[in-house]
Amino acid sequence: MVAMRKHACLSPRARALTLALAAVLGVALLFVVSPPAAQLTLSNIETSDGLSSLLYWDSGVAGLRQNRNSLPSHCRDPYREPGYLHIPDEVSRTQWVPFADDFLDLPPPSTANYPTDKIPEFNDTAPPTEILNRAPHNWLLDLVQYESILKHTTSKSESAGILDLSSDQRDLVRRVNWIHNRRLLVLGDSIDRFMVQFFCEDLNGTYHNTQSSEYGGPHTTFSCAIPYLNFTIYHWHVASMYPMRPHWWWVSHIKHVAFEDRFENLFKPVWNEAIGMNGHTPDLILFESGLWDERAFRESYRNMKQPDEDKQDDETQKKKDAQRKKTGLGREGRQLVWEELEFFKVRMNKFIKYLREKFGETTPMMYRSLTTRRDSTNADLPTINMDRVSRALMARHGLEIFEWASLVRGFSTHYQDYLHVGHGPLSVTWANMMLYYLFRATGGIDYDGKFLRFPDPVGQYVNDGKSIRNAPTIAVPEHPDTSVEKFWNECHEYNIHLGGR
Predict the structure, then answer these.
(1) Mean per-residue pLDDT for 418-429?
(2) Which of 3, 59, 218, 363 maximizes the CB count within 10 A of its CB?
(3) Host H or E run for residue 196
């Protein structure tokens, strides 16, 4: 108490000097006390607001914990920035609008005035054009228009006439030339499969389930091909992180559950189809697991029978089965227990390593964050648990996160059933995100509504001819750069920070 009273009597200047000295001594003590393996080095940087900011490099952590202002502008991921999902009447024009500085610095509207006796009134208007123009590009809308041009070039019908390309159409042809011959691989569940299917339908592509010697149906491999673009997406179904097929598995035609078994028996036969232009890997991989794990955890408890239970009469067994569905680990609406979390962590960790072993350390890979049910309740708690575990693992492995689930959460009217996101603005958002990351992986930079770089073109796909006039000439290099790992790595280190909750 005496020391506190003395400090209170110091002049403001003396108090400031005392605190500054204490701070310096504190930093010095940090270096003296800390063991060598945990030492920190500190350096000053100049931020955009002219203030010095400290950067901490922890020798035990792979990466800089950086001030947001130190991030190269073109490496900021707009889909990980806070923003607004703009859904106009024309659904194909749905856009994610990040809250950039332009938005934060907009002049205050009169409705926010204080003091006032006027009740605020609001109109349903779109974001200002200058804000929309800085949103990430709407690639799906481009491709819908481009696909119709390509279809016209191959039309043999005289009634189709001659398509005289306008200036905007010529720009469009130049802009989307890069999409040809790309391959995307998606490993996940039916939520992902529906997104692939909807994308295919939007571009008049063809999709089908791969015929397997084991069984047919949607729980195998699925592909979407856009013939005019030679662009293909493959979906490989992941049936949870379980390491074997329990006798109680609820889908009888699924013979292989462990991802290791599914790779050998289902994915290996179609492996080469997913190889991209670099000749050895897909151009981009999205992956996740959670939906089937949640069901498996519940079913596991519901099917745990006591040694003498088979001797009981049917009525008694039915009552016990019903009780298991409502109580204990068999009930819906519970969190995962700790042992389930540990199990999922270990298996997901192995899954990540397995993918790296199969596709290489440098292939662009992203974890697709987990969606919740249409009417989110306690039943989503296991999904949220697993998503958090997965996020921690992605940070450990240095993998980026495809934050689609965060963007679409809450839009329950756009679900097609209690579980699956429907065909509409949320699937458009998935498509635009996927194409944004594919553009980046193949060498493009889309930042702040501008294209700073395009991938190397690999061919001229729209030519002047009998059906098309005024097609642009595209300069194709003799040896186009298809090194997806090089382009991905350019901004990768800035987007692997731990995201979400």
Answers:
(1) 97
(2) 363
(3) helix 190-202
